[in-house]
Amino acid sequence: MARLVGMYPAYPPPSARAVELEGLMRRFLAEHVLPAEAAYDAYRAAAGPDDHTLPPVVDELKKSARELGLWNLFLPSESRLTQLEYAPLAELTGWSLHLAPEATNCAAPDTGNMELLHLVGTAEQKERWLEPLLDGTIRSGFAMTEPAVASSDATNIETRIERDGDDYVINGRKWFTSGASDPRCAVFVVMGKTDPGAAVHRQQSMVIVPRDTPGVTVGRNVPVFGQWDQHGHTVTDFVDVRVPVANLLGEEGGGFAAAQARLGPGRIHHVMRALGAGERALAMTVSRVQERVAFGKPLADQGAVRERIAESRIALDQARALCHHAAYVVDSEGNKAARHLVAEAKVAVPRAVLEVIDRAIQVHGGLGVTNDVPLAMLWGWHRAMRLFDGPDEVHLATLARAELTRAPQFEV
Ligand SMILES: Cc1cc2nc3c(=O)[nH]c(=O)nc-3n(C[C@H](O)[C@H](O)[C@H](O)COP(=O)(O)OP(=O)(O)OC[C@H]3O[C@@H](n4cnc5c(N)ncnc54)[C@H](O)[C@@H]3O)c2cc1C
């Protein structure tokens, strides 16, 4: 059992390579990424919400990141990093959520899809899809959630994937297909029912659907708290979409298990990046309160403000400890053993980061809720994080079940 009660884990020290990469990532952030944000924002503002082209500055950053060796760090087989070693690097990318994860080819949903292809893809699937994804030349989408059913319970998914000779025929409506609006999005991993009569966790399968397959329609893009992401979150229709059976990902009926395998690392990576966003919000708080004067003194001299700063530091350090512990157990005992710790982190970290961002908004006054500073965007994204990759309640239900069935340490 992954849970350590009483004893503390002895984390292995980071390798020399991990330390070097951390220094490089810091430099990359300071010298390349943060200075590029203004150009990214200006491009997006001028292009408008319906435009999904990539601001050119992102390709420049991808080139620089690759030259520095900051590329595909999320995947241990590529990066030779443990999850614990990756955690501080991912955290740094969280300082600039629109730019740094993609610049380093560590952005969702591609990372989850790459994990899946790496884990269960055939040699042909890897060559056709994993290689260009690892190369950063295409992007991808993951189409599981459906507007018509409560998709936090993945057994509800209704999309049909029916065998017809050497093909599968797919029919269903998805939404929140992140990344689908991006012109570079070339492929979807689609989850649906291959056998509605099978045992409940064996009904679903995943298939690879090239975006240009007839019958695929990428429709309405939905904003997240009023923010229109460059890569989009779309309603995506699949009508009589035909793909060869060779496009099955993993085994037929294995979709539910594959979704868990995909979401496990994805969750902890979101959590790692969230810590960076929280650090940014705290840094902005500290800077603002020292320069802003109200009632005759800087805000930093007000006891209430100082208390908020301290609360934010505690919240972030607690959250990081939980995240690193989960990452350590992923490394030392595997995804399955770490699943409860990952669930704890997936609930606790976005909540902590939201509190920190909320305090940052408060000390910024009206400015805090505008788009002149990134706080409103960060708040919206992390509020959404309490829903995607499993709403809080689903993780809490899992944790409660584990707690209620655990043998007590002592008779009480
Ligand atoms: C920004 C963003 C990006 C996303 N990207 C993707 C993507 O790329 N691909 C994809 O397939 N999906 C994606 N999603 C969808 C996301 O995974 C779903 O929204 C999420 O799984 C919840 O499903 P639902 O919206 O159908 O909510 P529902 O299943 O309808 O659940 C609604 C609410 O019910 C409550 N609830 C559920 N279960 C329980 C329980 N056991 N106990 C108590 N309360 C409960 C929770 O509060 C939950 O939020 C994204 C969502 C967002 C917001």
Automatic annotation (TrEMBL):
Keyword Flavoprotein: yes
Pfam families assigned: Acyl-CoA_dh_1 (PF00441), Acyl-CoA_dh_M (PF02770), Acyl-CoA_dh_N (PF02771)
Span of domain Acyl-CoA dehydrogenase/oxidase N-terminal: 23-136
UniProt keyword terms in alphabetical order: FAD, Flavoprotein, Oxidoreductase
Keyword Oxidoreductase: yes
Acyl-CoA oxidase/dehydrogenase middle domain: residues covered: 141-227
Co-factor requirement: FAD
Every Acyl-CoA dehydrogenase/oxidase C-terminal domain range: 253-402
Signal peptide: none
Annotated family: Belongs to the acyl-CoA dehydrogenase family.
Assembly description: Homodimer.
Name of the featured protein: Acyl-CoA dehydrogenase
Top-level taxonomy: Bacteria, Bacillati, Actinomycetota, Actinomycetes, Propionibacteriales
